[in-house]
Amino acid sequence: MSGMAPIIELRDVSTVYEGEKRPAVRDINLIFERGEFVHVIGPNASGKTTLLETINGLLPVSKGRVLVLNFDVQKHGREVRRFIGYVPQDFMVDPGEPYTALDVVLMGRYGKIGVIGRPIREDKEKAIEAMKLLGIKELANKPVGKLSGGQQQKVMIARALVKEPKILLLDEPFSNLDPESKEKVSALISHLNEEQNITTIIVTHDIQQILNSHSRIVVMNSGRVIADGDLKSVLAVAESFLPTDFWRKER
């Protein structure tokens, strides 16, 4: 690993949403190494989701540069996204559309087969295997509009995994899951991180999960990174910056 470029690098990055004057994230300098497991925490509207969207090339950068796999995301966003499995907070597919759960998972293969390409047997086998890992194989032919919120969330995670990504960006991936499912899916993601060396960045409000983790933690507030390190080091800094009820409220 020595001498290898970081898999993700943000250099003095600021992002401003269209129609807004104040940056949603500002002056961000972060490096993520290959195979790292990172939690991003902070209060609402602190810039956590914007950070993931910026890394994924979904938002224009108003200042600075974002490099993923040595590609400038602003110039090579489509190429970069082939290697990123992204799970947003909200279900990305209109439940009114006539898609099955399997159809949505197969969308994760578009980076390999092309948007107008047709999935082959191998693609469908990989999609079913991803669904099996999430415990939703039996939902393959069920319309997405008839899935529960937790089932939709698992479909989106399967969609991210079937890409065979080098990077996972997960925005509140456990928010709609029951405690048992949350534990199983969390263990699966940790296992894939370790076994496949997938760089994994998770935005979460689940402070209990952080307290039980040995991961790197990035703390955001008001669009800035205010702490970055292990649990002990970030607590010393973050508690003085975050709202007084943040830690108590999120436990």
Topology:
Elements: E1 8-15, E2 25-32, E3 37-41, H1 48-55, E4 63-68, E5 71-72, H2 73-81, E6 84-87, H3 101-106, H4 110-113, H5 121-133, H6 149-161, E7 167-171, H7 179-196, E8 199-203, H8 207-211, E9 216-221, E10 224-229, H9 231-241, H10 246-250
Parallel strand pairs: 3-8, 3-9, 6-7, 7-8
Antiparallel strand pairs: 1-2, 1-4, 4-5, 9-10
Helix pairs in contact: 5-6
Identify the notable features of this structure and list them briefly.
251 residues, alpha/beta, Rossmann fold, 2 domains, six-stranded mixed sheet, four-stranded antiparallel sheet
Q: How does this model look, in words?
A:
By secondary structure, the chain is an alpha/beta fold. It folds into two domains: 1-83 and 165-251, Rossmann fold (3-Layer(aba) Sandwich), CATH 3.40.50; 92-164, no CATH class. The protein has helices at residues 48-55, 73-81, 101-106, 110-113, 121-133, 149-161, 179-196, 207-211, 231-241, 246-250; strands at 8-15, 25-32, 37-41, 63-68, 71-72, 84-87, 167-171, 199-203, 216-221, 224-229. The strands form two sheets. The chain has a six-stranded mixed β-sheet with strand order 6-7-8-3-9-10, with helices on both faces. A four-stranded antiparallel β-sheet has the order 2-1-4-5. A hairpin with a 2-residue loop joins strand 9 (216-221) and strand 10 (224-229). The longest helix has 18 residues, at 179-196. The radius of gyration is 18 Å and the shape is globular.
